Amino acid sequence: MLKQQEKVLEVSNLQTHFFTDEGVSRAVDGIDFTLHKGETLGLVGESGCGKSITSLSILRLIASPPGRIVNGEILFKGQDLLKKTDKEMGAIRGNEISMIFQEPMTSLNPVYSVGEQIAEVFRHHQKLGRKEAWEKAVDMLRLVGIPSPEKRAKQEPYELSGGMRQRVMIAMAMACSPEILIADEPTTALDVTIQAQILDLMKLLQKQMGMSIIMITHDLGVVSETCDRVAVMYAGKIVEYTAAGELFANPKHPYTVGLLNSLPRADQDQEELQAIQGSVPSPYNMPAGCRFAPRCPQARELCHTTVPELTDVGNGTQVRCWMYTPEWNVQLDAHMKAGGSIQ
């Protein structure tokens, strides 16, 4: 269990919506989490659940229109980022809070050398001259394990392998020793061996620099390897918030249970994997109650009509599910009296 640590980021009731011709998409709809100094927090869920929009909201990078942060509070070292001016946010991005984006080939500028792109970070945030910024860029490439960094610094992104490009992105993100690193699917496009190398590198740099990491992923294997705590997201809401070990040993929310059951297990003989039935609801037409209710094998009438709150169930775990509330027993008694059966 984590010791009581300094809070570096507190997100409260964050709501980011997109206003389009089809209607209002509530991509992130009232999420809360805390990031402590030196820890890694995993944001987990299917594609489209709101993980990446959460990270872009923290950095105030939501394209407007059509997107807008409509409510909430994002406290970084006690100061609300939503109240910062664009100039103040420009000084924070890439300096105190950095981000590694999903696909380095689309994040790196194809017409500049990778060394020049890293050096730009030093020139912008630390006001260094060209020569000193270039030397620091080469040092960063060396730090992230790229061989012959002086040579590689002069190359453009297309001349590097996928693993090397991701190392360049890490070097760029770490250039100013940020307090928070947001890693959005940092290993998605890489093969398994390179994935392991990148995760090991991130853990090493985290230990050396004492920074906090928000790891955004749909890969539960990455979560088990890297995260201290996990927030499981579904359809714009956090449905389970717990320590990583507790998540794998004792998952609570039916969605989390479904995710874990859909994975192959080395310690079990499985003829076929268990899929979660149904599909994710449209962000323009969310269910009236629990957003997982249409797919949940445990759902009762209450689940379909009323949205549950995050409930503390002990061991530092919070779950957004009616099964862990007193109301559930009342609903269950009524169900049994009506001649229903327990699923």
TrEMBL record:
Provide an example Pfam family for this protein. Answer: ABC_tran
**Where does the UniProt annotation locate this protein?**
Cell membrane
Q: Which organism is it from?
A: Paenibacillus ferrarius
Q: Which UniProt keywords apply?
A: ATP-binding, Cell membrane, Membrane, Nucleotide-binding, Transport
Is Transmembrane helix among this UniProt entry's keywords?
no
Tell me which Gene Ontology terms the entry assigns under biological process: peptide transport
Primary site of residence: membrane
SMART domains with a match to the protein in the record: AAA
Q: Which CDD domains match?
A: ABC_NikE_OppD_transporters
Q: What is this protein called?
A: Peptide ABC transporter ATP-binding protein
Q: Where is the ABC transporter domain?
A: 9-260
Q: Does the keyword Nucleotide-binding apply?
A: yes
Molecular function GO labels: ATP binding; ATP hydrolysis activity
Which Gene3D superfamilies does the UniProt entry name for this protein?
P-loop containing nucleotide triphosphate hydrolases
Membrane topology designation: Peripheral membrane protein
